[in-house]
Amino acid sequence: MARVAFIGLGNMGGGMAANLAKAGHEVRAFDLSVAALAKAEERGCRRAGSAAEAVAEAEAVVTMLPAGKHVRDVYEANVIGVAPATAILIDCSTIDVTTAREETGKAAAQGYDMVDAPVSGGIAAAEGGTLTFMVGGEAEAFERARPFLEQMGKAVIHAGGPGAGQAAKICNNMLLGASMIATCETFVLAQKLGLDPQTFFDIASRASGQCWSMTSYCPLPGVGPETPADRNYDGGFAAALMLKDLRLAMEAATSVDAYTPMGSEAEELYTRFAEKLGGAGKDFSGIIKMIDDSWSPPTSDPAAPPPGLRLPK
Ligand code: NAD
Fold first, then answer.
1. In order of start, what are the domains of the chain with their CATH numbers?
2. From the CB of 71, is ligand 1 less than 6 Å away?
């Protein structure tokens, strides 16, 4: 068992750190939030007074932070040059490919092995230890990170060199965002053409239109397996996080001059849903309410009632 520093104990990191503690590691946890720290302590972690204190004697450092700027700040101020150079550094946050590569390079220059290991799976998977990790880094760094990741997830896949984990994550989520929108508009059209949604589901899920957004995560209540659609689009994967990932995908596409018209359209539609229509906290499949007629389109008439998303009661 090892001394593990865990920084970032939010929705995802809280459960992940608890699973490492449950596996027998001595987890020294740090978060800027006192409440998150107290919860981690209740779940078997040791509270550290700062990130630097958490990493001081660490054999492994795991971070689960909101975005690239937090990762850069934490690694440059409190991890690189502070943790023992023998520690394996594992960043599980979803961040831009460029920052992931830069931080891995800066860590390597000081003798550290580092991987980017973003996850697929939400809060329930973080709690249950059933995340999927897509990992970027050198083969040796991957092998050093793997045992820790296996204690927090059900699948650990080496995607390639530094940054490849982040690349895999945003490409997957760009596909997911676009396929969810396509699923939503298809079901709305099918209904308008008089098709019963369940009948259409039974047909399309066994025909060439089949996709995960439909068969495993159908955006219509009462159709297919139980999903956030059956819970008023609460829980699940927040539209704000889908939008974050689509923006990272578009930033990456620009950086390599890739033509991604569907990804770009998906980003625009999720921006409207999450930021203009109040859907940010709803599951990303809730975008069907914007595509459906139950949504009142924005208007430039100042006397008109504010546009709003009429999510189901
Ligand atoms: P969150 O906001 O709940 O947690 C982030 C935590 O980091 C917070 O507790 C915050 O206080 C802490 N933090 C921020 N700056 C810090 C610093 N300098 N030092 C110490 N702690 C600091 O976010 P989350 O939902 O846990 O997501 C974390 C990452 O996982 C994000 O990159 C997100 O995109 C990704 N992700 C989230 C989900 C999900 O369903 N929530 C799914 C897949 C991936």
1. 3-161 (3.40.50.720), 168-290 (1.10.1040.10)
2. no
